[in-house]
Amino acid sequence: MREVYLDNNATTMVDREVFEAMEEYFCKYYGNPNSLHHFGTITHKPLKNAFNQLYEGINANEDDDIIITSCATESNNWVLKGIYFSEILKNGKNHIVTTQVEHPAVSATCAFLEELGIEVTYVPLNDKANIDVSAIRDAITPKTALVSVMWANNETGVIFPIKEIGEICKEKGVLFHTDAVQTIGKIKVDLQDVNVDFLSFSAHKFHGPKGIGGLYIKKGLELTPLFHGGEHMGGRRSGTLNVPYIIGMGKAMELANKNLDFETNKVREMRDKLENALINMNDVLVVGRDTLRVPNTILASVRGIEGEAMLWDLNKAGIGASTGSACASEDLEANPVMTAIGADKELAHTAVRLSLSRFTTDEDIDYTIKILDSSIKRLRNISSSY
Ligand code: 7TS
Questions:
Q1: How many angstroms separate the alpha carbon of residue 103 from the centre of ligand 1?
Q2: Is any atom of ligand 1 closer than 6 Å to the C-beta of 183?
Q3: Which residues neighbour 238 within 8 Å (Cβ) at sequence distance 6 or greater?
Q4: What is the DSSP string of 60-101?
Q5: Mind listing the pLDDT tens digit for each residue in 198-251?
Q6: Which of 80, 97, 169, 178 would bridge 109 by S-S if both were Cys, CB 3.0 to 4.6 A apart?
Q7: Largest Cα–Cα distance of the chain, in whole Å?
Q8: What is the set of domains in the chain, with CATH numbers?
Q9: Do 345 and 338 form a contact (C-beta atoms < 8 A)?
Q10: Burial of 20 (0-12, 13-18, 19+ CB in 10 A)
């Protein structure tokens, strides 16, 4: 049976070039970079190269910090909890502005901070599945310590107005964090072009390994560490550096940017072909279709069919997709983005997310269209609501 992977917003295949770049740092060059002997020091040059790849990849300045973390969940937790210690407790500011559709790594951390007495404003989506810049502006008060808005939404692929929000934050003197997990490798991330103070990313979303990510911190900004210990990374995040994974993430970042044109053109073309075929299957709504989106994502609602039933059919045919974030797949709640754009309960349960990558092929798309067509016909035939 054909195997088609269309869940690249959950995670991606490690690029073989990335794997090969990492390989010899497991059994050959396994020294601790902090050791003074040559087993340790031999890792310095390749590590420096990997950091350069990361700095270049997001166009950060040399004197900004990019701190390695274990994943974007850690990066997001760190910003929010770090701000609690470095801003909220010290300066008396007790308010955070975010959106209703952040990944749980942000929203659950905000909920935790609310229990500690912090006020959080959750800005809703507009009817184009986007965030209104004016809503962010209106939410900021003199008590606001941080604005945290994701760059691109993981469910819909909609690109939020990060440049404009960054400008508002600068004007109002408020720190700005963006979760750019779904952006790197899909659109250009250029920190010279936007005013961002903190930016989270995760290697496994751009064909790097799982369990490694980063946090960009603009030059000179204070952020209380989450991990105290051996003073690694200038004391900002203690823990022995994961040399092979950092090298893998650097390589993955370099390749992500090298392949941006392919992503913008070929991946978008395949996505649009799949999307148009779906729309032609009638009573299919693609969320954010009229809005600027990353080139690889479709969040579709297929009237009359439960998302889970559709996934089951697709999975039986060898196709991996999602009803939304895999992180939330154990509670069968309606897709939160569908709910946020005002979809009724029935429609909100019909969401299916299909996300492509540069390893998706035309044959994958043709096969998926064929399976979707027969599955939608079969399931609508037995649907009580269609
Ligand atoms: N932020 C965003 C925007 C994400 O999409 C994810 C993972 C994370 C943070 C967490 O990243 P990690 O490095 O800690 O794993 N998102 C998804 C998803 O959409 N489906 O499965 C995981």
A1: 7
A2: no
A3: 225, 227, 228, 229, 230, 231, 232
A4: --TTSEEEEES-HHHHHHHHHHHHIIIIIHHH---EEEEETT
A5: 999 999 999 999 999 999 999 999 999 999 998 889 999 999 999 999 999 999
A6: 80
A7: 70
A8: 4-12+260-381 (3.90.1150.10), 16-257 (3.40.640.10)
A9: no
A10: exposed
101 CB within 6 A, ligand 1: no
pTM strictly above 0.90: yes
How many other C-beta atoms lie within 10 A of the C-beta of residue 240?
12
Q: Tell me, using a 6 A CB cutoff, whether residue 73 lines ligand 1.
A: yes
Our mutation pick for probing the ligand 1 site, out of 103, 156, 204, counting the most ligand atoms within 8 A of Cβ, is 103
- What is the CA(179)–ligand 1 centre distance, in A? 9
- pLDDT for 326: 47
Compute the mean pLDDT over every residue in the chain, rounded to the nearest whole number.
94
SS3 233: helix
